[in-house]
Amino acid sequence: MKKKFKLSLDSNVKWKDISPGGVITEAGNANDFRTGDWRSIKPVWIEEKCKQCMLCPPVCPDSSIPVDADGKRTDFDYDHCKGCGICAEVCPFKAIEMKDN
Amino acid sequence: MSKRDRLSGNEAVAVAMRQINPDVVAAFPITPSTEVPQYFASFVADGKVDTEFVPVESEHSAMSACIGAQAAGARTMTATSANGLALMWEMLYIAASLKLPITLAAVNRALSGPININNDHSDTMGARDSGWIQLYGENNQEAYDNFIQAVRIGEHPDVMLPVMDCYDGFITSHAVENIELLEDDEVKKFVGEYNPGEYLLNRDNPISVGPLDGVPHYFEHKRLQTEAMRNAKRVILEVAAEFEKLTGRKYGLFEEYMMEDAEYAIVVLNSTAGTAKEAVKQLRAQGIKAGLVKIRVFRPFPVEEIAKALSGLKAVAVLDKCDGFNAAGGPLFTEVTSAMYGRADGIKAINYIYGLGGRDVRVEDITSVYKRLEEIVKTGNIGEVHNYLGVRE
């Protein structure tokens, strides 16, 4: 009989229910891991300066610049943005500013 | 139907490996365990098994390859000794914490330095807290029988831990003895198919193995490991009962030899038990009520059962073929006496470190320990607790 184990990312999981050996059985669960709280500085999107040149979304290491159905970037995903600042660095229009978190 | 043969301990374990026909064997040679993968490599070359044999470049790689293979869903085995085991150290803990039931023939040899290739137990005693189950065997038959049972014990769903089959280098590994082997199909039937719950090669259910385990989860995983070790005690006895039905050979957590009415006893591991049994026989002929406890299962340690077995004694000596360097007693001694605390109080207990680096231990050496116990009971004076047997004073 195979036991169903709780997702390893549940911080309240009791030892009897935790996945043996720390095996992760669900795919794509990085989405549930809020890395945003690691951040000390954050990028701020200045929409009026943004030309939608789309240089920033592909350089984000945490896929935290969502792109909508029209192919336009939207506001940052602060649940996962670690505040590395690469997006601000590549922006040719100073449309992203790094500020205190 | 069993068949009689005469084999060295290493040969017997290699035969067990052939009969099990594991999916993967990854090994690096080191005396005195070298012959196990050597014999096994010939079985591979002769087409007697369909195992993937991985001749790696070090023991660290051997254990790493075993971990990868076992995580992929393969039944995996290896063999090593002494410094080879030490080089596996980091990976031993990872194998256990990932709950991968790898089987390892651990052929006991002194851990350098100074450099020494002969038998003592400093290698596996050093790995005693790595999370592996440890079985110890007195002779070739027990090394063979324990290896077959190890597969079933480790792979049990309530356990899922790696297992070491420990036996004495040269004394057991290289000496040829009469042995009763099982038929190949009996072994295959006994061990059955390995059915891991989650495994990497299952493309219908992809998993991640070995991710970072932070503050919120590491402790719970360690607690789970302890539970598996606790379960192992029951499973070891269940597997032993089934093995006895098949072979008639009885195994427990430890063997009690002439313990029913014993007043003095020795606790010992591996081949020295054979020497000690001869000493017990001679002492019994002189009317001295000597007994012997030979530990088979060191991890998990049979705490309650050992305390009960020793509770009727007047005095006990624990023999360690390894010094623990706590400057107070060897590892077996500290385990046995802590088991006795609150369960078998008031029994005089002393420790002898013996046989380091292959120093021979004779029947008269063992007899002298029993005589010392008699003296302690007669005088009431325990004297030195941490003693050395056979070192030149």
Brief overview, please?
The complex is a heterodimer of chains A (101) and B (393). With 101 residues, chain A is largely without helices or strands.
Keywords:
heterodimer, A: 101 residues, little secondary structure, Alpha-Beta Plaits, 2 domains, elongated, B: 393 residues, alpha/beta, Rossmann fold, six-stranded mixed sheet, 41% helix, globular
Radius of gyration of chain B: 21 Å
Tell me how many strands of chain A there are: 2
Order of helices and strands of chain B: EHEHEHEHEHEHEEHHEEHEEHEHEHE
Strand content of chain A: 5-15%
Number of helices of chain A: 2
Using only C-alpha atoms, the radius of gyration of chain A works out to 18 Å
Find the structural class of chain B using helix and strand composition: alpha/beta
Strand order of the largest sheet of chain B: 3-2-4-5-7-6-12
CATH fold naming of the largest domain in chain B: Rossmann fold
How would you characterize the largest beta sheet of chain B? 7 strands, mixed
Question: End-to-end distance of chain B, in Å?
Answer: 52 Å
**Rough outline of chain B:** globular
Give the N-terminus to C-terminus distance of chain A in angstroms: 48 Å
Q: What's the CATH H-level homologous superfamily of the largest domain in chain B?
A: Thiamin diphosphate (ThDP)-binding fold, Pyr/PP domains
Mean pLDDT of chain A: 90
Provide the CATH architecture of the largest domain in chain B. 3-Layer(aba) Sandwich
The CATH class of the largest domain in chain A: Alpha Beta
Number of helices of chain B: 12
| Rounded average pLDDT of chain B | 97
CATH fold-level topology of the largest domain in chain A: Alpha-Beta Plaits
